[in-house]
Amino acid sequence: MGSASRPANRRRTAPERRTVVTGIGVVAPNGIGADVFWKSTQEGISVLDRVTREGCEQLPLRVGGEVRDFEPGAMVEDRFLVQTDRFTHFGMAAADLALADARLGRADYEKFPFGVGVVTASGSGGGEFGQRELQQLWGRGSRFVGPYQSIAWFYAASTGQISIRGGFKGPCGVVCSDEAGGLDAIAHAAGAVVRGTDAVVVGSAEAPLAPYSVVCQLGYEDLSRADDPERAYRPFTAEACGFAPAEGGAMLVVEEESAALARGVRPRARIAGHAATFTGPGNWAASREGLARAVRGALEAAGAAPEEIDVVFADALGTPEADRAEALAIADALGSHGTRVPVTAPKTGIGRAYCGGPVLDAAAAVMAMEHGLVPPTPNVFDVCHDLDVVTGKARRMPLRTALVLSRGLMGSNAALVLRSAAPE
């Protein structure tokens, strides 16, 4: 009887939960901390240089982006350091910086420990730690292999250690979807917030410049073997010869908008839309359609028209075929606006940090919107594609909506739309 007498138009709907970025933590080749990273990024400073990590001297990879001013013991407790690889040291340090930026302290989240989750993305896990333990195994015997070998190399190690160290008991996960996983992780975190989680610490940091990891990468045809740091990574130019790898990355704090405002925290940006596709490895021509489809999906999810995009942070792989596919994908998805919208790729100054790279781009996009400034693309001058690539110096202009693109060497494609949190 009750259901029959209830008016059809009285159905209740839950209020919309919007996900915002409230904290940014960065450990990158061009700086530790979001402010230092942004200062270098907006000035277009390139820190690409010869790889100096021990054991890499005789390898054919010459140029990369190293994090050289990072002291793990100054940011991570000894008991965690001995259990973890360099990629997790970066992740834990960046998570601390993001939590501090969001002003989300233990006094806040101990009240709702099951309301805070952790999501990271990883391309390869802890290669340096794994190499050291394998050397012990074959050089000295099994009794000299430490117990943490079972977990430190694992691609999920950063998620686990960040959640244990912080006391976060909410939904946790790790995304393994190629380099595009950095953007997919952000979308995964945003979805958790929409479904009811209060906050998620999300992002990625990589450490691919240890000897074993470098040897694994030498199978990538797209890896630059150039000797000159100024010429090793030049996407969208006739001199494009591949990408320079990098270590480091970024972590973000994302949370529900009204909860952030109730804490007295000003959101830095809103996560508006995301989409991902897969077009298979070794086929950059196919990534044109896949990336364009991802862009359209992200725009649809964000409720944004192509002409609303104010800046594109490009994937910028750095090979002629891949660059051409991306330029065409931007035109396919954004129409005539695709040839006019400013395009930037700050990663050409620091290297491509695999899953950490697109999270660094997302962090840069947030700060670009805050400052009304499109950062330049270091080491890139003579663009040979029909794109408005920002080169030389930063371009000042109002920015309300940013599009971040990422593709992986194994065929993943992702697009993320971010909106400014500033009042209209």
UniProtKB/TrEMBL annotation:
<dbReference type="Pfam" id="PF02801">
    <property type="entry name" value="Ketoacyl-synt_C"/>
</dbReference>
<dbReference type="GO" id="GO:0006633">
    <property type="term" value="P:fatty acid biosynthetic process"/>
</dbReference>
<dbReference type="Pfam" id="PF00109">
    <property type="entry name" value="ketoacyl-synt"/>
</dbReference>
<dbReference type="InterPro" id="IPR014030">
    <property type="entry name" value="Ketoacyl_synth_N"/>
</dbReference>
<dbReference type="InterPro" id="IPR020841">
    <property type="entry name" value="PKS_Beta-ketoAc_synthase_dom"/>
</dbReference>
<comment type="similarity">
    <text>Belongs to the thiolase-like superfamily. Beta-ketoacyl-ACP synthases family.</text>
</comment>
<dbReference type="InterPro" id="IPR014031">
    <property type="entry name" value="Ketoacyl_synth_C"/>
</dbReference>
<dbReference type="InterPro" id="IPR000794">
    <property type="entry name" value="Beta-ketoacyl_synthase"/>
</dbReference>
<protein>
    <submittedName>
        <fullName>Ketosynthase chain-length factor</fullName>
    </submittedName>
</protein>
<dbReference type="InterPro" id="IPR016039">
    <property type="entry name" value="Thiolase-like"/>
</dbReference>
<feature type="domain" description="Ketosynthase family 3 (KS3)">
    <location>
        <begin position="16"/>
        <end position="420"/>
    </location>
</feature>
<dbReference type="GO" id="GO:0004315">
    <property type="term" value="F:3-oxoacyl-[acyl-carrier-protein] synthase activity"/>
</dbReference>
<keyword id="KW-0012">Acyltransferase</keyword>
<keyword id="KW-0808">Transferase</keyword>
